[in-house]
Design brief:
The structure is a homodimer of 398-residue chains. With 398 residues, chain A is α+β, with helices and mostly antiparallel strands. Chain A folds into 2 domains: 264 residues, L-amino peptidase D-ALA esterase/amidase, CATH 3.60.70.12; 119 residues, ArgJ beta chain, C-terminal domain (Ubiquitin-like (UB roll)). Chain A is 32% helix and 27% strand. In chain A, the strands form 2 sheets. In chain A, strands 1, 2, 3, 4, 5, 6, 7, 8 and 10 form a 9-stranded mixed beta sheet that branches. A 7-stranded mixed beta sheet of chain A has the order 9-16-11-15-12-13-14. In chain A, β6 and β7 form a beta hairpin. In chain A, α5 crosses α6. The longest helix of chain A is centred in the middle third of the chain and has 21 residues. The first copy, chain A, is globular and about 70 Å long. The N and C termini of chain A lie far apart (56 Å). The interface between A and B is large, with 69 and 69 residues.
Chain lengths: 398, 398
């Protein structure tokens, strides 16, 4: 029997300190912050596949791939430090240097994450002032400092007993626009005091990303700065968790839940969104096809606009399914909107449009597709397409 | 030296008659029409790749692939007759039957095209009345009857001397939403009185579609009913054009121009659009990569919203390029917006945001990308993402 976990209000796990300040990168909100572990922590990461990978993302990736260890993370919003060439790389090194000096650690233990406008250099004088002002406190303001057009913080904190020790897992993220991770300006972090072997941490993250963060979309645009990092500093004092450890299934389930819920928070708070759309596809020949169909549906502008309008226009769902390369018989496809069957055997089923429309008014819409071609399932999450999405993105940089 | 062509106001070529009526499939506009050739015409087509291919599209495809000949086309808007199963197929046969009887021809010479809502059966009593009311006149009302959310007809008429004979090429199309052809509820037709061999006609169409209709996008959704058809009835009396004929280059150029211009009209009149976006990509390793990048850029919601807001936010263009799988060095990429260089060598170039924003106000925006990785070029066309797109699509069926 697996030990269970408990959700609790957001705190940092043992051995972590944090702070955030307003370094005037933007008009009024917190914009620079850090997270510091008292000891070097096992680190794992997944990163954007965008060929214009931002300097902070690229450098943090190199660090983790080399030593699988980080002790501090410095972050900023407002500027993504992407498409900034040599200068961008130098600026990241400078950030690492400032943080390392303050903490009396080596610069290669300092990860860097940036989010914001692409193609502007970081204002380094402001960054320096900001970093110098950071303290090692227990506040959780960092979860606010990384937000851009997000309307709320995205956090989840779980505790569980692992190897007889109480461990805390604290996840936080930012999302909003340019969200279509393949591993968005999407940043996600889960830090824990649990002791977990670095390769085990990386294996879990790589596996779980495919069915969590990589299954959300706000607008189909894959950012230059996407990154999800896990840190595990082992301060809880448990025996190190490896993939062979008896508590491994529990730890993996914990991360699955954390990554899924953070991903859903990002989808729900997509730019301009009024609701979360959860698509479940059953009966696919492969899991990959199930996930591809689910992601195609939440990615369709027409489906997203229909959901905003509470319009049970299932033709758009069917059309999206048909545009995928998945293997199935169009005459066997079934579609349910919030448990109302609208298509069976690939053909219309009579239903009350009024009742269906009413049900779409809720804050979470469930689309359920069965393509009856196999035994595999997949899920994806997205949001509706609204006037506010257009408004936000027609007036972002100027 | 190639003969030139002349553009003229829209008429039907010799040997064609047409008509359209209001069959009350929708509230007030023309919704059923036909086009009839006095003799069987060579026919070529390209069709949606959506797995839920609509009945009219599937059946017309079968007809053309079998006999490469059509004499009449019957069309309707309001209902797509897609996802309508057996009944949908029967209804198409019935339409063919009614038209064939009226014209005293065989049903397999009657092509059928439908566009509109997916998943509703055709109201056959109304269709019958509509078809029975059609006359063989010279009016061009058919170009209106196929429109759905289109704001204007899309037509182009060219004349040229082919083999010593005056030939007329009359192209018309409908587009608007669910436009991301891979071969959208996109319908395109070019009919001519020129005599052209059927295989030559099909070869030209298949080749040209890849760089014309397949390079436009309104919303990234590939419809169930997309179809582009060419008819050539030979009534002009010229010697049959084959791929070896000396006039073949001229004829191919004519079709290239017609298909490109119809495709651009569809992109410009995308649902809610205020402007046409033309993206040119140079310096790609292959033509396919150039076309893929161009189409990804016009397909990005963030780019489209920025264009609506006259926001020279080139970071979104760069990010979209980077998210493709094309082969290039990010440090060699250059981007121009209406001839204003905004990125060179993958990095920001100082420019007047005010001047750039001002230039984006024009009705056609030119995005020019050079990835400096090879000698191939590609183009794609799209439109901006506006409040009206959301409005139209949040309230379509209900």
């Amino acid at each position: 029997m697996m030990t269970e976990w408990e959700e609790q209000s957001f705190i940092w796990p043992k051995g972590y300190t944090s702070d955030a300040v307003h370094a005037k990168l933007r008009y009024s909100k917190l914009d620079v912050g850090w997270l510091v572990s008292e000891v070097p922590a096992a680190a794992a990461g997944v990163y954007t596949t965008n060929q214009f990978c931002a300097a902070p993302t690229a450098i943090t990736k190199q660090l983790i791939q080399k030593k699988h260890t980080l002790q501090a993370l410095v972050m900023n919003s407002a500027f993504a430090n992407a498409c900034t060439g040599e200068q961008g790389v130098k600026d990241v090194s400078q950030e690492q240097q400032w943080v390392a000096e303050k903490l009396a650690i080596t610069p290669d233990l300092v990860g860097v994450a940036s989010t914001g406008l692409i193609g502007s250099y970081l204002p380094m004088a402001k960054m320096e002032k900001g970093i110098q002002a950071l303290k090692q406190t227990s506040n959780t303001l960092l979860t606010e400092a990384i937000l851009t057009t997000d309307t709320k913080t995205k956090t989840l904190c779980l505790t569980a007993t692992i190897g007889g020790k109480q461990c805390t897992f604290s996840g936080f993220a930012k999302g909003s626009g340019m969200i279509h991770p393949n591993m968005a300006t999407m940043l996600g972090f889960v830090v824990t005091d649990c002791q977990i072997a670095p390769d085990c941490l990386q294996t879990m993250l790589s596996t779980l990303t495919d069915e969590t963060f990589n299954q959300i979309t706000v607008d189909g645009d894959t950012s230059t700065n996407d990154m999800v990092l896990l840190l595990a500093n082992g301060v809880a004092g448990n025996q190190e968790v490896t993939t062979e450890h008896e508590d491994y299934p529990l730890v993996k389930n914990l991360y699955h839940l954390l990554l899924t819920e953070l991903a859903k928070m990002i989808a729900r708070d997509g730019e301009g969104a009024t609701k979360l759309i959860e698509v479940t596809v059953d009966g696919a020949k492969t899991k990959k096809e199930a996930q591809a169909i689910a992601k195609a549906i939440v990615g369709s502008n027409l489906v997203k606009a229909a959901m905003f309008g509470n319009d049970p226009n299932w033709g758009r769902i069917i059309s999206t399914i048909g545009a995928t390369s998945a293997t199935f018989d169009p005459n066997k496809v079934a579609v349910q909107l919030n448990e109302i069957t609208v298509v069976a055997d690939g053909q219309p089923v009579a239903f009350s449009e009024q009742a269906a429309s009413k049900s779409l008014e809720q804050e979470i819409v469930f689309v359920h597709v069965d393509i009856n071609a196999g035994a595999h399932s997949g899920k994806a999450w997205g949001c509706d397409l609204t006037y506010d999405y257009v408004k936000i993105n027609a007036t972002y940089s100027t």
